[in-house]
Every structure is written in C-alpha cells, then in structure tokens.
Amino acid sequence: MNKTAVADASAATNEGPETSGGQPARASNIDAIVAYFESGITPAGTAGELGIELEHTLVHDDMSPVAYSGPYGVEWLLGQLEAEFPRTTRDPEGDLLGVARPGEAVTIEPAAQVELSAGPFASLEDARATFERFERTLDDVLAPHGERALTVGYHPSAKALDLELIPKRRYKFMNLYLGEKGPFGPRMMRGSASTQVSIDYWSTADCLRKLRLAFALVPLFSLVCDNAPVFEGAPRTHELVRTEIWRYCDPDRCGLVPGVMDPGFDLRRYAEYLLDTPAILIPCRKEQWCYSERTFGEIYAERTMTRAEVEHAVSMFFNDVRLKTYIEIRPADAMPVPYVVAYAALIKGLFYHVENLDALDALFEGVDGAAVEAAKDALMAAGYEAEVYGRPVAELVDEMMALARRGLAADEQDFLEPLAQLAAQRVTLADLAEGKD
Fold it and tell me: Where does the signal sequence lie (predicted)?
C-alpha cells in the first residue's frame, strides 16, 4: 500500500497525533454520528416517501463495454444530458462526473455504470414516469451510435478487471484497498449494478426496528430481485451472484452491521462500528482525497467530526442495509423499470404500514445474524427450493407479497405485479435469461 497519502491526510484534516490516552474525542464523535442519524427522523404523521436508485451498464450492440472515455463514451453521454440536467459535477481536472436537476441526479459508478438517483417519491406513478422518461432519454441518445443501457446485475460480457475505472481519485483508492482484500472488491466496483430503495423513519425506535426487519428481509429481496445470469463473462454457477460479491468484498464494511439483529442494539453501537473500521480515504486539502488504513476513530481521535465528515464516513460502508438520514435497502440487482417500481412497491407496502411491521416482527421472531447469513447460503445453493428461517422460502415470499399488497393503497397494488408474478412462478429474471421457466 502507498503510505504517502496517509501523512497528507493527517495534515490536511488538522487532526493531532494519536495520544497514549487513546481517542479523547471518541464520546463526542459517537454523539456526532448519533445526532446525524437522528437528524433524519421524519415528523410523526408525515407520509413516507421513497428514494430510488437504478444503475445501468452501457454496452455496444455487440455487447462489448462502453468506457468512460473515447468517442461516444460515458463522459460524452453526460455531456449530451447536460441540457436537461444543467447542474454538473466535475473533478479538479475538469472531467464530467455527473449531471442533475431538482429531484434527479445522474452519476457514474467506478467503471462508468450510469446511475439515476431520483425522488423522494410519495407516488409510485411519479416514480414510474420519472424512470421511464430517463430510459427513453438514454435510448434516444445511445441508439444512433450503436449503444444501449442495460439494467442487469452484472456486466454481460466483460471481466471486471478489463473494465476501465473512471478518473475519480476516490475510486482509485477504493480499488487499491478492496483489491488487496480479494477479487470481489473490484468485481463489486466495476462489474455490478444495483437497484436501491430508501425509506423514512419516524423515531429512533422506528429506525432500529426497520433496520432489523430490513436485514431479515435481505435474503428474500435478493432472491426475488436476482438478475445476474452472467458473472465474469461466463454463465453463473449459482443463484444470487450479488450476494456472493458483497459477502466477500470487504467483511469489515459489508453484509450485516455487527449486532444489528440483537434486541439491545442502538445507534451508539452503530456509531462505534463506524469509528472502529478502516477509513480507506478521507477528504484532504492537498489532493481532494487521501488514503488511510487507520480507523475513523483514530483519524478523528483528537477532535469532533463535522457533519460533512460524518456523511463521508457513512458513505464508506456498503452494508446490505445502510443507515444515513434515511434507511437505504441495497441487496437488489439492477432490473428493468417495471420491476424496479414493483420492488419500490414491495418495500413501500411492507415498511409504511404499521400492522405489516407488527406482522414482520412476528414472522422473523428469533432471526439473528447467523440465521441471515445461513439464509444467504441456502438461497445461493438452491434458490426457490431452499429453506430459510426454518421454512420453505417460497412460503415466506408468498407471505411477504401478501403483506405488501395489503399495505398498498388500492390504486398502487398493480405496481407490485411484475415481481409478484415472478414469485408466484418461482422464477427470477436471471432464471428467465437462462431459459428456465
């Protein structure tokens, strides 16, 4: 590892040397992180909204990768979108990295996957219209040049290390650090693409409850949203490719938040977990981003973190469910828009209906972290034939779908149908791509 940037980081963030007393500012940093989480509490009585992110993999018509640079590359695409999305983000060298307009941001992932982040949405119809409009825009721009944007969970033709990283210093350091952990970090960064849905919480207790239930649901969400039939340029060898990638990417910052399924888990324990994990990179004056293998607690041992520093620290964790000032549910593969909206409907119906939260508490009573990991193993091995939490997973999926339907208003229940129909047939999008039925 290059240690030069570590020294740069210490100077740039104005932190003092670590003292023999440990971390004098630890208590205040825990308070700062907890305050950040609590600032996301939505006033009681407010209708819950959804944030949605969908990543796209760009390919030529022959399925070969479209890179960031070069003729009709992703930088060119962002430039074409700038008229409709006039707010731009550039790196210090002037490279275009994102465009945005109110309620919608187009950004790029490490190997130039194109992501639309949109919302928050109170209406699933508004979500559908927004994402369908973006798909049409991409098609209009790309098709004349023999390119298209795919919504699949993993690159359909390339191996991860053959894909070009975008010119973003943050990703250079992440690739370095995660690459030393093993092959799955670069595969996550370069090859994978996801659908993510974010939800609100109304109190600390509501936040912790939804976190616990979301983690229990992760294996089921992974199954119904499985859309990665190809891995590293070849047909997959097991179900749920995304689950394997994230399990081995970096156990320090992926998978379950340690202790999150315990009844006594609280936000202070979440904050301690953040402080005790290597940072990988931190903001610094000299180079914008500087590399560090020290923990956040060590880096900020002598002073209290600012809100911006807390936000950055949180962004360096990639758990199946991630807490920011909202709860981000992350296990789903990228999918075509009807399935994305169905997934949003599933989450809305489950988490914004009090009786459904009670039902989920009963359904997952006694489920701990070990059970969640065992469920992932079972589903990777057997898909819809697996048993999860002591029951056939097909039965659990049926109950989940029924609860979600009950939790949706009558005029939004139809949005659930694309995923509900797949579940009823006991198939996934990945299965269909493989010719299974």
Answer: none
For the record, the structure tokens of 311 come out as 């936000």
Where are the chain's structural domains? 50-207+236-341
Low-confidence ranges of the chain (pLDDT < 70): 1-21, 286-288, 437
390: Cα within 13 Å, side-chain hemisphere = 8
Amino acid at 296: F
Rounded to whole angstroms, the Cα distance separating 433 from 437 reads 10
CA–CA–CA angle 30, 263, 360 (5° rounding): 120
Token pair of 226, please?
């499985």
Q: What is the pTM of this model?
A: 0.93
Chain centroid, CA 55 distance in Å: 10
Q: What is the DSSP letter of 40?
A: T
**Does domain 50-207+236-341 bear CATH number 3.40.440.10?**
no
CA–CA separation, 90 and 97 (whole Å): 5
pLDDT of amino acid 227: 98
* pLDDT score at 18: 39
Taking Cα atoms as reference points, which of 303, 214, 310 lies closest to residue 271? 310
Give start and end residues of each alpha helix (H) in 143-233. 169-181, 184-191, 204-224
Q: What is residue 44's predicted lDDT score, i.e. its pLDDT?
A: 84
User: What's the confidence (pLDDT) of residue 13?
Assistant: 41
